[in-house]
Structure formats: structure tokens, C-alpha cells
């Protein structure tokens, strides 16, 4: 299918061919008919991508700070890898569209094939086919044309701004900024029985406002602006001001404080620096400043947007979705008319011309710019496409990748492609699959995992998806006769683990889990020192994990929590350096009244191993960000081995002290050993027994926290 894509590194914008998305539960598959280019938002996005590296840094100082922090923690080489991966990504554009439902798996059984719907969020991108979460889809009334319905998300933004102002019938309201959102905002206010005054820097927008949405409108530079406002408000000032303008200075905010009545309300919708002068107006008038968050309640809440969990109607009357529905109702009843706002409609094949318009390369007045998708052909609804590359010598290992996020692109794929033939990459988003295929040289890209399992050419599968999919994909790959490398964790519950055991026992394939730390140079040194010592060892493993907000996917059903998702790494490392299996685990955590501090993020785990060794894992998210992430102390037989963040180590042996510097967490080495095992018919670099007991011990750690008692992992 066709999709508008931007290369973030070069800024190039083009129409690309990407795999169509595959329907999943809680989502709706929609054939786009029209999508709206949000001139203000997308112009900034395109301009940022077209800027030089220095220009990008100036526009995103927050990312610069992250790079600096990463340099301190991981060094230049690792930081450069991350930056290159970020810069070489492709971006989707668009967030407001309308079309027809092809397939729906919404949990409410609300949408049916053929339904006309409006779609919102980054899912409603400029593509022939889109996959949208159910809470960001709204049914379009029969009397509303789909080109008008494509304005729904932008209309919901305007709607939320008006709701924040909470205007009453007869209120005097000023809208500063009569662009697309400003014009719609003024119409909604008018429909609400308000008297609307508009201000903009463009004479054309003022004229449009007078015709369409405002009772009175003037340019910001008009010499009679203040006298006209006095006449409009009878000298009292406005009840509220809604700022929908984008500006580099705080002039719209200063103007708002001057023209409001005492106790008036400022609502900020547009991108304006929030620098409010305290004196004289803001302080003396006791003004109120409110922020309007995008389309409404639910925005940036992953459980609402992606998880499909709605807010109770009686407690949150207006959500993103209900704002979308309300705006469609206003169009149905002719209270809002966006038809005059449409200045251009481009066929999807001419999308580049549309962006020339909004970036100013094509000098022409515009306000509402639509992309249309008129094709009825079905051949573009493909979940797999071929990608042209120069031919390479045939190699024995032929790889399919399921999942290709930033981790896979940074650590896995670059190493795999030097030792294998890359056949196919599958991701949930077609644009990601196409970008990765082009970047690394895969023959095909797809959004359908069955393309991996049923392809006889592929003999090795890499799985780097979200945690809840790992077990199912591992079982399917093993049953289809593939070698498997899966990122941790292997499974999220006992049932998944036992099914993997059954599948593995009935196969002759290699199963490897991405426990990379045991393959690091420092882990190898530790193993060499302690493997010849028969006495039990003491291992203290402290992880300064860092804070992750509660709404992060790791805490959802997809992630299973940080214990299952991360602590398994450290359990495996302890097994490796002791060359033993966990016998018993016990875990205790601290609980906080702070709702932002997820449970089980701060805990102490004690692991008793079969050889008598004891490992203690201290895992915390409440430590200082300046402290290194990982510190390991291994003691036994008169020797001590201290590792700091896998960047440096100190070895204490009898009377000698040796410092070791060879950074790296073993990602490259684990791939090399996995590939070597396949090429030479050797067992997996990590025995299945070790993988099994690492996973089992991690599941038992979660149970120990729940029960408050030590739990057996393996009996004598």
C-alpha cells in the first residue's frame, strides 16, 4: 500500500510502498478516503527533519540532554549507535482521517465492515490503509461527507479548547489565531451562543473569519484593535480568550491579559511560549491560565488509546472519542461548516506537492489541505512486499525477524546481517518494516508473522517484539522447524513455559534467549576465575534501574512488569558465574504511598543455588540518575571481582589487584556464538536447562512477593 513517509535523517519526503497493517484485537482496520494535513503541526515536523544536525539539536534540546546523559553512562561508541539508529528512522505523518471499515476487532462489537468512520491520533496517518485503536474511531453520520469527516480530529482539538474555557450562552470570547483550528473554534463558540471576536496576523484569515465564524475580526496590527474590543465588550473585556495561534514570542499571552475582564480565563491551545507577565494585568485581574491537552481526556494515556479502556461516562463526560463524536454531530446539524476551509485536495500520488504548499516552497494561500485515496483496487492491501537489493552470495543461515524496534536495529540486526542472509522482516507498522528492510537489506518486509513461519527459505527466526507475544512466537517458530533467538523474557507465566518445554522437546532446533550479559568480556573473566573454585560464592548484583512512569507498556499485560521483563537478566548472570541452578528464591519490596512509584520496582531478591552459593539482587527505581546502572560484586575462595556497568572491573586475587577495561554487555558475542552453533551443528550457547530455570526462578520471584515466603525452584 502507499504511504507518505519522511526520512528523518535527510528530511526527504516521499510516497513509499509499505506492507499493509494486520488486524489485531481492540483495533479497527480502515481504508482511508481522505486525510487532513494539519499545516501547523506537520510543517514543524517536516521542517525539523529537514534541518541540519545542529538545527535538529536546537529544536530538540531535551534530546540533546538525553544524549549527554547517555555519553556519561555508556560512552561514545554506544551513544553514537543510538543516535544513528534514531536519525536513520522513517516517520509517519498525519493524525486526522476518514474512510470505511474493512475489518473490526473492537471489543464492543460496535464497528462493522463498510461503516464510515473518522479516525484520530498518529494511527490516522497518510496511508491507504490504517490500523486504529477503537477509542480513536468514531462513526460518521450519513449526511456528513467523508472529506468533511477528515477534519474530525482537528475539530476535537478545537472542541477541547472550548471545553476548557467553559463558556456560557452570551459570553464574550476572543479567539487569537484564525488558522484551521481557530476558525473551527470560533464556529463552535458561535454555535454555543457566544459572541466571538477574532484576531490574526493575516488579512486573508480575518476576511475568512468574518465570513464564516466571527462576529467581528481584526488583524493584530490594526490601529483600532483596542477601541474595537472596547466597543465589542462595552469596556468590560472578554470573559475568555482562546489562543489557537502558534508564535515564537509570548505576544498572544500578553495580549490576552490586556483584553480580558477581571477573573477572565486564558486557554492555551497553540504553541506559544508560556511566559506570563505577573504585573499589571495578570495579577490585578486574578486571571486564570488553562492548558488544553490535544483532543481531550485519554490523550497520552496508553490504557485508553491503545488498551481500549474507556473512562466512566458519569465521571469523565468528554473524552477524546466523545469529543470526536460531538464534533461530527455539530457537522451533521450544520452548526459547524468546514467546507469553506478546504482550499486544496491532492491525490495521494501528489502528496509531495501538498507538502511543498505547507512548507512555503509553493507560494499559494491555503488553509485546509486534504489528501484523497480514490482507488478501489485490492492489490495494494498486501501484508508482504518485496524489496529490491543487490544480490549477495547465498549463505547457510537465512533469517526472518519478527519485531524491529530501536533495540533490534541497534544491537541485533547489524550483527546478524554480517553472518547471514536477511530474508524477511515483520513489524506491526508497515512503514517500520519497509524502513528496516531498506536500511539493512532484507529481501521482503511484511506485517504478517505467518510469512515468517511458512517460508521454507527461512531457517532461523529472531523475535524482538513485546513480551506477551514471545512464548506464542517461539512455539510457532519451533513447530515450523526454525532455530529461534528470542529476546527476554521467554515466557510470562507457567503455562507458557510448559508449552515451550513441550514444543522444544519435540524438536531438534536451537532455542536461545537474549541473556547477553553472560557473553560480555567481563563475565567471561569472572567465570574463568570462579569456575575452578569449589566453595560457594557470594554475588551482590545492584541495579539502579531508573524510574519508568506507571502508564509505560512494561507494566501492562504486554510487558508483564519489570521483574519478568528485566530481572531475568540478572538471575541468568548469577547462574552463569556460579555454574549452578537456583534452588530457592525469596523477594521483598518496599511500598510507597506515591501513586507514581509502581509496586515491585524496588526490591531485594535472595537466590540460593544448588551449589550453596547465594546471590542477592538489589533492584531499585528510586536511586539517583547520576549513579551507574549496574554494579556486581562476586566473592569466593579468597577472590573478589567488581564490575561497574560492564565498562570497567577490578579483580582482587590474593595480593594482586588488576583493573580491567573492556566495555560491552555481550550483544555482539551472543549473536556470534548463536550463529556459530547453527553453522556447526552445536548445542545452544545457553543450555535449555539454564534458560528454563532462569525463567522459572523469575516467575517464582513474582510469587514470592505475592505470598511473602521463600519458594522452591528446584528441589534436591
Task: Offer a concise description of the structure.
With 716 residues, the protein is an alpha/beta fold. It contains 22 helices and 32 strands.
Textual characterization of the structure:
This protein is α/β, with parallel strands linked by helices and 716 residues long. The protein has four domains: 2-151 and 301-372, Quinone Oxidoreductase, Chain A, domain 1, CATH 3.90.180.10; 160-291, Rossmann fold (3-Layer(aba) Sandwich); 392-513, NAD(P)-binding Rossmann-like Domain (Rossmann fold); 516-712, Dihydrodipicolinate Reductase, domain 2 (2-Layer Sandwich). 34% of the residues lie in helices and 24% in strands. The chain contains 22 helices and 32 strands. It has a nine-stranded mixed β-sheet with strand order 31-30-29-28-24-27-26-25-32, with helices on one face. Helix 18 (494-505) links the parallel strand 22 (483-486) and strand 23 (511-513).
Core attributes:
4 domains; alpha/beta; single chain; 32 strands; 716 residues; seven-stranded mixed sheet; Quinone Oxidoreductase, Chain A, domain 1; Rossmann fold
CATH class of the largest domain: Alpha Beta
Shape: elongated
SS element count, helices: 22
Number of strands: 32
How much of the sequence lies in strands comes to 15-25%
What name goes with the CATH superfamily of the largest domain? Medium-chain alcohol dehydrogenases, catalytic domain
CATH fold annotation of the largest domain = Quinone Oxidoreductase, Chain A, domain 1
Widest β-sheet, arrangement of strands: 31-30-29-28-24-27-26-25-32
| Number of structurally distinct domains | 4
